TrEMBL record:
The lineage of its organism: Bacteria, Pseudomonadati, Pseudomonadota, Alphaproteobacteria, Sphingomonadales. Belongs to the short-chain dehydrogenases/reductases (SDR) family. This is SDR family NAD(P)-dependent oxidoreductase. Keywords: Oxidoreductase. Pfam families: adh_short_C2. Gene3D superfamilies: NAD(P)-binding Rossmann-like Domain (3.40.50.720). InterPro entries: KR_dom, NAD(P)-bd_dom_sf, Sc_DH/Rdtase_CS, SDR_fam. Residues 8-188 form the Ketoreductase domain. Its EC number is 1.1.1.-. GO terms for molecular function: oxidoreductase activity. It comes from Sphingobium rhizovicinum. It is an enzyme of class 1 (oxidoreductase).
Length: 251
């Protein structure tokens, strides 16, 4: 594939596996320079080498999204490498399945620290950079669980994803005058190894039976939607929550 003369650059969090890896691949295929960050820096580096063994168009980074200074360092590394950043995808996530009465306050804080605090810090750090640049695209990965309270996930996960939806709207409103759009995607159950690992097979069959389209969602379609929302042409999509859930939630 021929690459654009002036390629755009993406920073994605939690990008080494699962949905994050699908998103990283989709942006790279679309001609982006891709900064793949993950708390597992070795896995992020491995995926970057898979996408481009030369290292010219993909870079793996270690990033703990709970740490503002680490986020700033990741931002600066991509700017030093490619000159600018045009898009951020906040995808880093911790998922723990546990009944609500059994969740400890410390476990609640742990999940929200990555999912919600991490998204907040990412939107702030890149939001400030995009404001000075006069252009930027932020896509936050939320979840159906943040809209309906979750059926197969923990309350802390659902609460964090609901918070991401609210943060998306706040940042979208406040950053829009500076050429920045902020949107979220709220997937339902996706056909991912992580989903199959978390949900027992018999329960998963029941979940699939309850989805109007009768199958799990495609991570690749979510990834392509993310690329669409990050494009320069997506200037009038702002503050939206894009539902990709097979009809489980209609509004």
């Amino acid at each position: 594939m021929s690459r654009p003369e002036n390629p755009r650059t993406l920073l994605i969090t939690g990008g080494s596996q699962g949905l994050g890896a699908a998103i990283a691949r989709a942006f790279h295929e679309a001609g982006y320079n891709v900064g793949i960050s993950d708390i597992d820096g070795a896995a992020a580096h491995a995926l970057a080498l898979e996408l481009d063994p030369s290292g010219e168009t993909a870079l793996g980074l270690t990033l703990d999204v709970r740490d503002e200074a680490a986020f700033e360092a990741a931002r600066d590394a991509l700017i030093a490498r490619w000159g600018s950043i045009e898009a951020l995808v906040n995808n880093a996530v911790v998922t723990i399945v546990r009944p609500v009465l059994e969740i400890s306050p410390d476990e609640f804080d742990k999940v929200l620290a990555v999912n919600l605090r991490g998204t907040f810090i990412g939107c702030q750090v890149l939001g400030r950079y995009f404001k000075n640049k006069g252009h930027g695209r932020i896509v936050n990965i939320a979840s159906l669980a943040g809209q309906n309270g979750g059926t197969a996930t923990g309350a802390h996960y659902a609460a964090s994803k609901g918070g991401i939806i609210t943060l998306t709207k706040v940042f979208a409103r406040d950053l829009a005058p500076f050429g920045i759009t902020v949107n979220a995607i709220a997937p339902g159950p996706l056909d991912l190894p992580s989903v199959r690992a978390l949900v027992p097979e018999d329960k998963l069959e029941g979940i699939v039976a309850g989805i109007p389209v009768r199958h799990l969602g495609s991570p690749d379609f979510v990834a392509s939607t993310t690329v669409h929302l990050a494009s320069p042409e997506a200037a009038f999509a702002n503050g939206a929550i894009w539902d990709i859930n097979g009809g489980l939630l209609m509004r």
